[in-house]
Amino acid sequence: MRDSSRFRVIAVLVTLVVGALSAALLATTGPSTLSGSPGLHIPQLDTDLGSYPELSSNERRDPGEFFTPPSPLPQLLPGSVLRVEPIKEAPAGIVAYR
Q1: How sure is the predictor about 97, in pLDDT bands with cuts at 50, 70 and 90?
Q2: Is the separation of the CB atoms in 20 and 28 below 8 Å?
Q3: 91 and 81 in contact (C-beta within 8 Å)?
Q4: CA 17 to CA 7: how far, in whole Å?
Q5: Assessment of whether the complete model's pTM goes beyond 0.70
Q6: What residues does 97 pair with on adjacent strands?
Q7: What is the pLDDT of residues 21-46, one digit of tens each?
Q8: Is the separation of the CB atoms in 84 and 97 below 8 Å?
Q9: What are the φ/ψ torsions at residue 97 (nearest 5 degrees)?
Q10: 87: Cβ–Cβ under 8 A, 6 or more apart, which residues?
């Protein structure tokens, strides 16, 4: 009996020490260190809206006839598709619709 309780105490102490060392290691390891690791890729997001003119422009553009809903709206279930057309600018060999 005495040996099994000693084993449990040692096991708990080892677990606490390993947990504390792991937490310290993770706290001191920043993303720059992790991103240099093989197999781990942390993408860098471009947050500059200047590189996305469609998002940074205050100019309103007409979305076109395709995106204008029919009037009056047909009596369909919510989520029903109102209009479909092929996208002519799709890459060769790809059939795409909007």
Answers
A1: very high
A2: no
A3: no
A4: 15
A5: no
A6: 86
A7: 887 777 766 555 555 556 666 667 66
A8: yes
A9: -130, 155
A10: 96, 97, 98
For the chain, what percent of residues have pLDDT higher than 70? 67
Distance between CA 4 and CA 2 in Å, rounded? 6
State both tokens at 98. 């909007």
Mean pLDDT of the chain: 77
The residue type at 75: Q
- Indicate the length of the chain as a whole number: 98
Whether the per-residue pLDDT at 96 is higher than 80: the answer is: yes
Query: Residue 18 has which token pair?
Result: 């390993």
B/e letters for 31-52, b = 16+ CB within 10 Å, e = fewer, are eeeeeeeeeeeeeeeeeeeeee
